[in-house]
Amino acid sequence: MTQLHYRLPHPNLREFFSLYYLLDSQGPVRDDHERAGMAQIRFILKGEGQMEFGDGHLADCAGAFIVGPSATAMKFSLSNPFYMFGMGFLPAGWGALTGKSAADYTDRAIAATELFPAIERHVKTLSACADADEMTAAADAVLLPLIRDADPKIIEFTRMVDGWLASDVSPDINTLHDQTQLSDRQLTRKVKQYYGHPPKYLARKYRALRAARAFIEADPDEADFLRDAFYDQSHMIREVKLFTGTTPAKLRTQESEFAELIDQRAQYDGQINPLSSQT
């Protein structure tokens, strides 16, 4: 049996982190796909896992580790039993806390100590927690002081990019240029710094993920609207499979157990960043 428990971070953290989650898998060894997404911080409290990225390279995951922004769907395998606490690392949070370019960590899983040398001690703290609520309180206590001095310019910029991505199925890059007053080269560098991808690839990624969500929810109006954003049906199928690991037809009828659990974050739409709740 596998359970995934979501929790909202403290309101002051929601600009920087999407959701906390506790994954408790007591079933057999699992092999599945994970959709392309934003960076994650994860703490494996029991068991071990392995991730396979789109370029075929493998990463063993243990203890506290960070998964950078992913350019395509990933494969993963989990031992039995497996117990993990994690959180979605929003672009503003990445910029405020790491000081690194997210592009250098795209499609990588690294020990969290590479960016946060003292983080391993929090594995013991989380292991001592009884449930997701206690883990949420512990995470809030650690993270709130860290974002107190976050650069408001990072927040302002990521809000513009998030708003641009949400403004249209295929948002016009010229709109973002006008809003930011940055040259093409400056804009590309800055978007890659916080999001891991250049603007056009970022728009392509979230177009496919939004289309996948429409198929999952069996919303014909939304699905038809999104289908028009692709060149043709074959293009749409290829893009959805690239970023989700499966085809639109299977999303409707054969979505995996793990993917169905992740879909529960849709219930937080309006409370968290739409890049998380609507994909």
Protein architecture, described:
This protein has 279 residues and is an alpha+beta fold. It has two domains: 2-146, Jelly Rolls (Sandwich), CATH 2.60.120; 152-277, Homeodomain-like (Arc Repressor Mutant, subunit A, Orthogonal Bundle), CATH 1.10.10. The chain is 43% helix and 20% strand. It contains twelve helices and ten strands. α1 (91-98) runs antiparallel to α4 (152-167), α4 (152-167) runs antiparallel to α5 and α7 (199-216) packs across α9. The longest helix has 18 residues, at 199-216. The chain starts with a strand and ends with a helix.
SSE string: EEEEEEEEEHEHHHHHHHHHHH
Q: Find the structural class using helix and strand composition.
A: alpha+beta
Q: Can you give the helix content as a percent range?
A: 40-55%
Strand order, biggest sheet? 1-2-9-4-7-10
Mean pLDDT score: 90
Number of domains: 2
Distance between the termini: 25 Å
Q: Work out the radius of gyration.
A: 18 Å
In percent, how much strand structure appears in the residues? 15-25%
In short:
Helix content is 43%, strand content 20%. With 279 residues, it is of the alpha+beta class.
